[in-house]
Write a structure and sequence with these properties.
The chain has about 350 residues and is of the alpha/beta class. Strand 11 (about 165-170), helix 5 (about 170-185) and strand 12 (about 190) form a beta-alpha-beta unit. The protein has two domains: about 1-145 and about 305-335, Medium-chain alcohol dehydrogenases, catalytic domain (Quinone Oxidoreductase, Chain A, domain 1, Alpha-Beta Complex); about 150-285, NAD(P)-binding Rossmann-like Domain (Rossmann fold), CATH 3.40.50. Strands 3, 5, 6, 9, 10, 17 and 18 form a seven-stranded mixed sheet that branches. The relative contact order is 0.15. The longest helix is centred in the middle third of the chain and has 14 residues, at about 145-155. About 25% of the residues lie in helices and about 30% in strands. It starts with a strand and ends in a 6-residue tail after the last strand. The chain is built from eleven helices and 18 strands.
């Protein structure tokens, strides 16, 4: 059976193509994709700033209904609504064998090196398929992978009760990181974001905001933190400018978390003496190890439906990417079988 898919062809080209559904293995699940959301990584793949293996159907944040299962599948059955943890690990390299599978030397990702979610159908191994609770919509279920990444980042940052947390970037991930930081006991959460629409959402959720287009970020944050700086600074914009700024906002003994995906050809200078004198902790956060399950447990409390601000059919994939890049909202969802009424 043939199906429609948005395939990255390389050379910054995304194209709608017809593909043939592969034969299912014993542990495979055929998913009729209900919703897939656009991530910043998808842009970076198309721009050539993120390693992918074209031709490949992109999209790694998605949910769908089980259409068919292999003979050995036991955890899901046809018509179940499921979400996908989109990574396959080799199980044999050093990192897999010391409990750090997400750093696997031979990792493959659906939507990056394996066909992903901007398609009518996708075949996924059972071990990466999660049945979702009945109360959750397919649109919110598609966001589980992103929420799992945010949970991993917050766990890495080790936020303490009463901490001042500054988040550079108030997009979808920035808002989720802020919500999780507050759940973990942060005393104040500051979102630094130039987009007025996103700032308004952050304010509505009760976060303190700084608009870098009209305010001096460092001065405002120092004033709010009694001249000390933030205990935790999270770079969530994926921009070299905000990565540099993180070093200016951190207090002594603080933690800087690089969460956003800064293009690999971008570099910054810093003084090792600053890290030495301030006893800083500088961390990265990569994907979502062992946090997809946790994301399903907490996602209901994050009020994410309101952050899906535009919806498109699969045939409108180019328009969906144009809208997402405009920054007029938060998450853009693509529905391969039609936008729900």
């Amino acid at each position: 059976m043939k199906y429609l898919a948005a395939q990255y062809q390389g050379n910054q080209k995304l194209q709608l193509v017809e593909k043939e559904i592969p034969i299912l293995g014993e542990q495979d699940v055929l998913i009729r994709i209900a919703a897939a959301t656009i991530c910043g990584t998808d842009f970076k793949i198309i721009e050539g700033n993120f390693p992918a293996e074209p031709p490949v159907v992109i999209g790694h944040e998605f949910s769908g209904y089980v259409e068919e299962v292999g003979s050995g599948v036991k955890s899901v059955r046809p018509n179940d609504l499921v979400t996908i943890e989109p990574h396959i690990f080799c199980g044999l390299c050093k990192y897999c064998r010391i409990g750090k599978e997400h750093l696997c030397a031979n990792k493959k990702g659906f939507g990056v090196r394996l066909d992903g979610g901007f398609a009518e159908y996708c075949v996924i191994p059972e071990k990466t398929v999660y049945k979702i609770p009945d109360y959750m919509s397919s649109s919110v279920a598609a966001l589980t992978e992103n929420v799992g990444c945010c949970i991993h980042g917050i766990e890495r940052a080790k936020i303490d009760i009463g901490d001042h947390v500054a988040i550079l970037g108030g997009g979808f991930a920035g808002i989720v990181l802020a919500e999780l930081a507050r759940m973990n006991g942060a005393g104040q959460v500051y979102i630094i974001e130039p987009n007025s629409y996103r700032l308004a959402e952050a304010k509505k959720r009760g976060f303190l905001t700084i608009d870098p287009t009209i305010e001096n970020v460092a001065d405002n944050l120092l004033r709010a933190t009694h001249g000390l700086g933030a205990d935790v600074v999270i770079e969530a914009a994926g921009r070299i400018e905000t990565a540099r700024q993180a070093m200016q906002l951190i207090c002594k003994g603080g933690t800087i978390l690089f969460f956003g995906v800064v293009p690999p050809n971008e570099f910054m200078e810093f003084s090792p003496n600053d890290i030495f004198l301030k006893e800083l902790t500088v961390l990265g956060s990569h994907i979502n190890p062992y946090s997809h399950y946790k994301a399903l447990e907490i996602i209901e409390n994050l009020n994410l439906e309101s952050l899906i601000t535009a919806r498109f059919n699969l045939e409108q994939i180019e328009d969906a990417f144009i809208y997402a890049k405009s920054g007029r909202g938060f998450k853009v969802a693509v529905y391969p079988h039609g936008v729900p009424i």
